[in-house]
Amino acid sequence: MKIAPLKLRGICVAAGAVAFCIGTLVLALIVNAYGTLDNQWAYQSAILTQYFITGIGIAFVYWMPESPSWAMSQDKPDLALAASKRLGMTDSEASRSILNIKMTIDKAAAETEGASYAQLFKKTNRRRTVVAFMPLVIQPFTGVLWVAGYFLYYTQLAGFSTAMSYKLNITQQVLSTVGNITSVSVTSDRGCKEIFLMI
Known about the structure:
Elements (H helix, E strand, L loop, with lengths): L5 H29 L6 H20 L7 H6 L3 H10 L4 H22 L10 H19 L2 H14 L4 H37 L1
């Protein structure tokens, strides 16, 4: 994420969530179309379609520049500078970016020297720990993983037909996608700007 321009970082984070929802919606449509077949394509269609997107990623991986932050963490400043230039920075912008990355890495190393996981739960750090991990666990705590994983099974246990449970699953994924697309404007305009200034 650090390779994205600051103004686009919020949009990139939101786009990741939207892409996850669109992928799940596509899967729901595929399962609806092929899930009732009496042969191996009832399950293989859902598995094989995932390799299409993976193939696109693999086809372009050779042309993707390395992360300048990763290169600097591996003590490869020349690679970091070249990667920054490939990302569209001018020579002066790339040099400034590399210096900022180096300062950040050095500061993080100094701050974490001699630190242990036990310090996360000491009274002075407990609040920071909760603030840092709660955004990552709120969504799983709401039960979204259960809904995503067991929704079809649950609706059939609740008495819905197989065809209707597939339609309800599609509806659920459409609502999820619409919700995430709606949140893009909020995420990109306000919340993420302050968060990514700290990163």
